[in-house]
Design the sequence.
């Protein structure tokens, strides 16, 4: 039993309970012993939107929102972004340690050899309208993969899980690239096994008639950095969805499709697309004060600002500001950056934002970079989903190996009608 305890006195009957405190938490189930009598269900905790509830123990990602710290498996995000490739980071998230050179070689080989999609997937994607949102195409195709790999439902078999992890990390860029090319009416490009993860992705996106696609190194590295920054973010809305669906032992394609659906919302990964729409709407620096005034009046939110956990500058946004400058050396400057920087400057001096600790988050700058690289805003959230697949799968693996986890099923506080009967609502008629 933990030495730290919390004493709780039930003022209804004067009884006192001693609840163990472990790692700064009390177990919600310990509240159930607090009852007024044998028929009492016991106290529950009520926490809409999980504002103060830990749903799991996790060793994957650490965030200190007040100090603006993000670490994967203990390593600061700044160091990983500076020195690693995305696939090294994906390995780290899933295995807990960085790979040795030999392990990395095998890992890269295995992921690279799982990038192809079954030919029928092309027909499936062909069925979408030319203007279908790429997130809809991604979500549906992820779910459809479940039908191609029926063995994936054996989620308690570690070897089967491993196989699906390789497939999902390998295939998600291919699905994304197919969705992108479908919306442009271009033929699909097969993966090229001689290229790195990000170079191959660029090849599948942008190859035209040349025999071999040669990517720009700065842009390929920028994509790697973007992918590293987006790879995981502890128990966010989509990771929680992955865990929730995974807890029913649905196969990982279905769970990942659900997680990607959660990511698509404008308050989560969809925010990067919204930021670009917002910057376009603002148009010029002169319009910023007027726009901020409307935000403060509650007319709309400043997209790309604020975070449930960060109450300080998002460390990923800091890195992205630098990456943006590097990308612009190649692509030319995206004029939206100047509006974004000025918007940030004005907002960070404004009492409304200061008081609420609202800072730019990762989505504030990522879209500007993606746009400079040539993506339309509809693709931005797909670009987020590609690397986040590694994080979702790390969370899913952890869930399935955690003996404390069961099917995810919250309680409710019932606020509806007490029992009532039809005969009161429909008094008997003459015909009855
Ligand atoms: C991320 C987000 C959903 C977090 O929400 P949350 O933790 O539930 O925070 P709240 O909505 O309770 O916000 C607290 C206060 O700040 C305000 N606020 C939060 N984000 C804001 C924003 N982007 N613009 C203006 N005001 C904002 C809220 O209106 C609220 O004000 P109030 O106390 O006067 O009611 C929210 O900040 C948001 O919608 N941001 C814009 C979307 C976005 O960028 N999402 C990407 C996240 S990585």
Sequence:
């Amino acid at each position: 039993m933990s030495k730290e305890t919390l004493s709780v006195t039930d003022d209804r009957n004067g009884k006192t309970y001693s609840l163990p405190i472990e790692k700064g938490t009390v177990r919600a189930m310990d509240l159930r012993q607090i009852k007024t009598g044998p028929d009492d269900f016991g106290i529950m905790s009520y926490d809409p939107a999980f504002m103060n509830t830990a749903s799991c123990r996790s060793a994957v990602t650490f965030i200190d929102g007040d100090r603006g710290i993000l670490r994967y498996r203990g390593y600061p995000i700044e160091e990983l972004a500076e020195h690693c490739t995305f696939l090294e980071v994906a390995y780290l998230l899933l295995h807990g340690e960085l790979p040795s050179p030999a392990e990395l070689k095998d890992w890269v080989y295995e992921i690279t050899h799982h990038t192809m999609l079954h030919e029928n997937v092309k027909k499936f994607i062909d069925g979408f309208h030319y203007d279908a949102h790429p997130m809809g195409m991604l979500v549906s195709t992820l779910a459809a993969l479940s039908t191609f790999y029926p063995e994936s439902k054996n989620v308690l078999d570690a070897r089967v899980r491993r196989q699906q992890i390789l497939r999902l990390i390998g295939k998600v860029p291919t699905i994304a690239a197919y969705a992108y090319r479908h919306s442009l009416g271009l033929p699909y490009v097969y993966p090229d096994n001689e290229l790195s993860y990000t170079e191959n992705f660029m090849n599948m996106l942008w190859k035209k008639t040349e025999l071999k696609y040669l990517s720009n190194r700065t842009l390929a590295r920028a994509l790697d950095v973007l992918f590293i920054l987006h790879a995981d973010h502890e128990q966010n809305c989509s990771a929680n969805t992955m865990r929730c669906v995974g807890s029913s032992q649905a196969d990982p394609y279905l769970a990942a499709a659900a997680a990607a659906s959660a990511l698509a919302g404008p308050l989560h990964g969809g925010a990067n697309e919204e930021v670009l729409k917002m910057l376009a709407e603002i148009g010029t620096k002169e319009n910023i004060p007027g726009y901020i005034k409307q935000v403060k009046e509650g007319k709309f939110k400043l997209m790309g600002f604020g975070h449930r956990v960060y109450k300080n500058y998002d460390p990923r946004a800091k890195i992205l500001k630098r990456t943006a400058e590097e990308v612009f050396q190649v692509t030319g400057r995206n004029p939206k950056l100047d509006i974004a920087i000025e918007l940030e400057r004005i907002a960070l001096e404004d009492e409304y934002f200061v008081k609420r600790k609202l800072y730019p988050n990762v989505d504030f700058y990522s879209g500007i970079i993606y746009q400079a690289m040539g993506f339309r805003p509809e693709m931005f959230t797909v670009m987020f989903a590609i690397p986040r697949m590694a994080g979702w799968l790390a969370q899913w693996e952890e869930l399935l190996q955690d003996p404390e986890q069961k099917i995810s099923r919250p309680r409710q506080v019932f606020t509806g009608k007490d029992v009532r009967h039809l005969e009161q609502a429909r008094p008997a008629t003459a015909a009855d």
The longest strand covers residues 5-10. Residues 86 and 224 are 5 Å apart (CA to CA). The mean pLDDT is 95.
